[in-house]
Design goal:
Blueprint (H helix, E strand, L loop, with lengths): L6 E8 L5 E3 L20 H5 L18 H8 L5 E5 L5 H11 L5 E5 L3 H8 L7 E6 L2 E4 L1 H11 L1
Parallel strand pairs: 1-3, 3-4, 4-5
Antiparallel strand pairs: 1-2, 5-6
């Protein structure tokens, strides 16, 4: 954020006890002083770990939860692109509603904007959803069309 970026992409994983944490890898080995799969490790155990920097040196930084990150960005001029979050959509929506950060979230996944609006009644002005085909974004148009219709 100090660099002036508008969007930050973060990856989510679920711990053994069902907590969403921010971590790129599904394992702890490469980016922390821990070992093993995140899905097999409790949040309490992960809280005792330290993150490594780009030179593989331990830092004083800890692994944040999604909720901690949402509280940190609330009201700031930044958006979060939540990658690897599609399987946790219900929890993500509940958490963004709780923290008041829904308008700061971008999701990508394999469902159309219409499907999500029907299932969750999501206000598409507040949720930016795109579909992926391989590595290319193929449809922002349904979201943009909904946004334009809702704005008129």
């Amino acid at each position: 954020m100090k660099m002036g970026v508008d969007i930050v992409e973060i990856d989510l994983h679920k711990t053994k006890d069902g907590q969403l944490i921010v971590m790129h890898d599904s394992r702890l080995d490469r980016t922390t002083n821990g070992k093993g799969e995140i899905a097999e490790t409790s949040l309490e155990d992960i809280r005792n770990l330290f993150l490594k920097n780009g030179a593989n040196m331990l830092t004083r930084e800890k692994v944040p939860t999604l909720e901690e990150v949402l509280h940190f960005i609330k009201g700031k001029r930044i958006m979060l692109n939540l990658d690897k979050s599609w399987n946790f959509l219900d929890e993500v929506k509940e958490m963004t509603d709780k923290t008041g950060t829904t308008e700061q979230i971008i999701l990508k996944g394999n469902k159309s904007a219409q499907e999500l609006k029907k299932k969750w009644g999501i206000n598409l002005i507040r949720w930016s959803i795109c579909r992926w085909s391989g590595r290319k974004i193929t449809a922002f148009t349904s979201v943009i069309k909904c946004w334009i219709r809702s704005s008129m």
